[in-house]
Prior knowledge:
Elements: H1 8-37, E1 46-49, H2 51-69, E2 72-77, E3 83-87, H3 88-104, E4 111-118, E5 124-130, H4 140-143, H5 165-175, E6 179-185, E7 189-196, E8 201-202
Amino acid sequence: MFGPLGNEKYSDYVENISAAGGHLLGILSDILDVSTVEPRELDIEDSEIDIAAAIKECKIMMLERADIAKVSLASLVAGDLPRLRADRRRLRQILLNLLSNAVKFSHEKGKVSITAETDAAGAIVIRVADTGIGIAPENMEKILQPFGQVKEAYVGKPGEGSGLGLSLVNSLMDLHGGTLDIDSTPGEGTTMNIIFPPERMLSNA
Length: 205
């Protein structure tokens, strides 16, 4: 006990307890989602999504974490981007997982960006790029497996996370008929590309 209420240590303890509880809840939620999505029992609830608005929302949610890590966070969305037919909650989950990883694996003064555009085939491509530590080719398969973690990859807090994020992203993209494509160079950074097929594109009219 630190005496009467008002002592700053109480506030610090509450924040730590809240952060720990939030972290545990996130891990449990990921475990439940993975246990559901792997046997394809998860239902996708499609809705019409403004991608620029979805990215802006996720960016705002990640700004504090990026500031704490001293990593810059930028976004750029093509002005003529069509709307997307997808599960709104799952898209948010995908983007937050990718942004969280990008920040986590970046050094101080690193850069993280999220962009969205259509490619030549008419698919919608959202890219989350960082200037972090990158991923070695021999670890690519491992990071897409449930609980797959690369011990030497962590910056700041070794062992942080559950190792479920990318596996879940990959499975959720598969349920949308899309793909997760990873381009990474050790020591230079990583770009995570989520690609939604043309049939999920909706007219802005």
